[in-house]
Design goal:
By secondary structure, the chain is mainly beta. It has helices at about 5-15, 25-30; strands at about 30-35, 40-50, 55-60, 65-70, 70-75, 85-90, 95-100, 105-110, 115-120, 120-130. The chain has one domain (about 25-130). A hairpin with a 2-residue loop joins strand 3 and strand 4 (about 65-70).
Length: about 130
């Protein structure tokens, strides 16, 4: 009987891996996203979330900012250090430079399936509102 003691623990870990993918909130669902990665390859995506959130978490100085992704028009990665500087252009045309962790994990969807990337792996992210179906 002793050889089966760890079985419930193993089953619990396996069930975590089979959980449903994270749902994209309605405010991010219809976003169209064009990502240019660090190699210059273009990727056409939909429904962007970063660190599982429809808001981008940024820093400037000692203050922390949260900007809804749907209000951002473009993100340009300006360096490769950590934290890295990014230029954020909002839909109103305002440009500001912030710092962000290069390890910020972003997810989106493509016609081929889901896509995961780290902010430090891209050059630019252009965001536009898509057409509701």
């Amino acid at each position: 009987m002793k050889k089966y003691r760890g079985l419930p623990l193993v089953l619990a870990f396996l069930s975590l891996g089979m959980s449903e993918p994270q749902r994209v909130p309605p405010e991010a669902e219809d976003l169209r996203v064009k990502v240019v990665d660090s190699r210059g390859v273009d990727h056409d995506l939909r429904g962007l979330l970063c660190d599982g959130d429809p808001e981008l978490k940024l820093r400037r100085g000692t203050l922390r900012y949260r900007i809804p992704i749907k209000l951002i028009e473009k993100i340009e990665v300006l360096g490769d250090e950590n934290p890295t500087k990014v230029k954020v252009v909002t839909r109103g045309g305002k440009e500001e430079v912030f710092e962000v962790d290069r390890g910020m994990r972003c997810t989106a969807r493509s016609d081929s399936g889901s896509v995961t990337f780290y902010i430090g792996e891209v050059r630019t992210i252009k965001i536009s509102e898509g057409v509701r179906r």
